[in-house]
Amino acid sequence: GRKGGHKGRARQYTSPEEIDAQLQAEKQKAREEEEQEEGGEGATGDPKKEKKSLDSDESDEDDEDYQQKRKGVEGLIDIENPNRVIQTTKKVTQLDLDGPKELSRREREEIEKQKAKERYMKMHLAGKTEQAKADLARLAIIRKQREEAARKKEEERK
């Protein structure tokens, strides 16, 4: 028959019901902790709330540090790297949609290319480009040849 794994035991799998039950228990535990924290603040009274509102700037900074999970020694040492870019998330109200949008190099080049093409087509239609002049000269030669051919046919008919 089948033997167990290399550690000497058969594998045990958790059922989806057990996983759901564990998740529910964790959520319930988190709710209870939040309720206890809220109850603790209410019991102490107004002085802490006033202090918290006065020190709101510091608590916001602490929250930002808390949100970023620090790796390794980062938590112990404050590193000031001028090249390090800290990603800040902007709120929808802070977004500047009306301001001029900066285009990338590729987008700028594509727009310039389209404008140059449009200018060339206008010049071409006006007959000011070298290619247009050559085309018009060819057309004039062809018209002359056709007129001569038409005259010869007329003369032959007469």
UniProtKB/TrEMBL annotation:
A family per Pfam: PP28
Compositionally biased region (Basic residues): 1-10
Composition-biased stretches (Basic and acidic residues): 46-55, 98-113
TM ranges: none
Occurrences of domain Casein kinase substrate phosphoprotein PP28 (ranges): 81-158
Stored InterPro entries: Casein_kinase_sb_PP28, HAP28
Superkingdom classification of source: Eukaryota
Residue span of region Disordered: 1-113
Acidic residues compositional bias, start-end: 56-65
Protein name: HAP28 protein
